[in-house]
Amino acid sequence: MEKEQRDELVNALRQISAGNYHPHIPVRGNASYRQLSAAILDVGNSFEKHFQQERLLGSITEKINDGLLLEEILNHVFQSFREIIPYHRISIALLDKDNKKLRSCCVRSDATKIKIAKGYSAPLEGSSLANIIATGKPRIINDLRNYLKKHPLSTSTKLIVAEGMRSSLTCPLIATHEPVGLIFFSSMQTDTYKNIHISLFQKIARQLSVTLEKSRMYEELMQLNELKNRFLGIAAHDLRSPIGVIKNFIILFLNGYLGEIDDKQREVLSTMDKNCDRMLNLIHNLLDLSAIESGKLELKPEPLDLQKFFHTYQSMTKSLAEQKQIELTLNIEPDLPDIMVDSNRIMQVLDNLVTNAIKFSHPNTTVTISARKRNGLVEISVADHGQGIPPDEISKIFKEFSKTSVRPTGGEKSTGLGLAIVRRIIEAHNGTIEVDSTVGKGTTFTINLPIGN
Question: Which phi and psi (to 5°) does residue 38 adopt?
């Protein structure tokens, strides 16, 4: 073989390595050269097919990571994998909790009428599928009609043949080393899977098993979360009444209805009263959080006059700010439109943001409430000139029971629930909340609410 020919073949291999799977090789030379050329082109085709397989398998991983449901991922597999593997039907059946029945949960088929649809179930005991579950090994049936002749009592085979399928490949689905179900690939031609490599089908099965395991874990997590919400709701509800009774008796003592008290007793009772308020605030937050997470947060939308709303709130809260020598100011754009919101919940949001701003600000500073109309939204912001939040801690401020390293300037207490509830209320109004903060300069929380909510 001449040097020029060898260089052509080496160059072709380099092109395949670089991703050009169909390099141009001149048709010339002796039989040995042509044989090597053909082998190199076959290698290119093989590499291309392998690359396509890995790309498509990678796309399943992306769909899993995106949090798609099993049916959505099966849709993706059914639509995308035809170019590399043959099938006219893909379905998934899952074992029940007792491992006694298989139930069809997802089906995609080219047949005009699906005979084994979602929800179809059959006993596992006595079925040929039990062996696949027991051994963890795939099964190929090259001729379903011939198989039906030998197993005439197989109802599922009768149905799949009636749907037009003629051959099948079945792979077990295994999650955390335990069988959870089966995935069926079926074709309208016989012998479709006779000489096929089943490794790709097994890889698809493994990927879908990951989705099933994530779904199972998510379901368990949701059940635990629901149990937690019920516990919080019951506990908070049962605590609210006795604490309310204690507070009422304290008020009776402080107001002199139960006799005279000296200064020391008044000081102790005042401390008890403040702690009752703090406990009641925590209980209300827990009840709110429980309602929100269980989907039971009720909103009562009504038109809200924003000018009146902000001025009323300022007059109610001004004295709280003045106790720390902080000025509470308004910067409200004139002619703001009314918005449809639950006014009590929006008051709760504003109060949380403003009291937080006062809580974390130094004396002789300003807290400003601003509002303006912008791009079909009303933008409401609460800005302070306080301590600011470290950049690496901003991401956790909207999480339940989460606190930053910044401490209240007057020793006030915090439950770590307020901002989590604020975010949920705003999202329930189809709005957004953002935060911009600089350490040593202050923090601004900005809410955007749709005008036509």
Answer: -65, -40
Q: What is the pLDDT of residues 66-121, one digit of tens each?
A: 666 667 777 777 877 777 778 899 998 888 888 889 999 889 999 999 999 989 99
The b-or-e profile of 329-356 (16+ CB within 10 A means b, else e) is: eeebeeebeebbbbbebbbbbbbbbbbb
How far is C-alpha 29 from the chain's CA centre? 61
Q: Identify any residues that bridge with 446 across adjacent strands, giving them in sequence order.
A: 381, 434
Q: Which two tokens stand for residue 267?
A: 């000081």
pLDDT, tens digit (0-9, with 9 covering 90-100), for 210-250: 777 776 677 677 777 777 767 766 666 677 777 878 888 89
CA distance 411 to 323: 13
As a whole number of angstroms, the distance between CA 413 and CA 359 comes to: 9
**CATH code at 3-65:** 1.10.8
Q: What are the residues facing 383 on neighbouring strands?
A: 368, 444
Provide the pLDDT for residue 57: 64
Q: Strands of 178-187's sheet, edge to edge?
A: 121-123, 101-109, 89-95, 178-187, 167-175, 139-141
User: How far is Cα 355 from Cα 382, in angstroms, rounded to an integer?
Assistant: 10
A 10 A CB-CB count for 174 gives 18
Q: How far apart are CA 420 and CA 344, in angstroms?
A: 17
What contacts 443, CB < 8 A, 6 or more positions away?
357, 360, 383, 384, 386, 388, 389, 435, 436, 437
Task: Round to whole Å and give the CA distance between 349 and 308.
Answer: 17
Cα 74 from chain centroid?
A: 19
**pLDDT tens, position by position, 91-100:** 988 888 888 8
Q: Shortest CA distance to 413 belongs to which of 320, 268, 275?
A: 275
Superfamily of chain region 70-196: GAF domain (3.30.450.40)
The domain ranges of the chain are 3-65, 70-196, 220-293, 302-450
pLDDT surpasses 70 at 376: yes
Domain 302-450: give its CATH code: 3.30.565.10
Q: Which residues contact 63 (CB under 8 A, 6 or more apart)?
A: 72, 73, 76
Banded pLDDT at 353 (limits 50, 70, 90): very high
Q: Let me know: does 449 contact 380? Beta carbons within 8 Å.
A: yes
Q: Give mean pLDDT, residues 349-369.
A: 92
Q: What is the pTM of this model?
A: 0.48
The alpha-helical segments, DSSP class H, found in 294-342 are 306-322
Calpha distance 443→385 (Å, rounded): 7
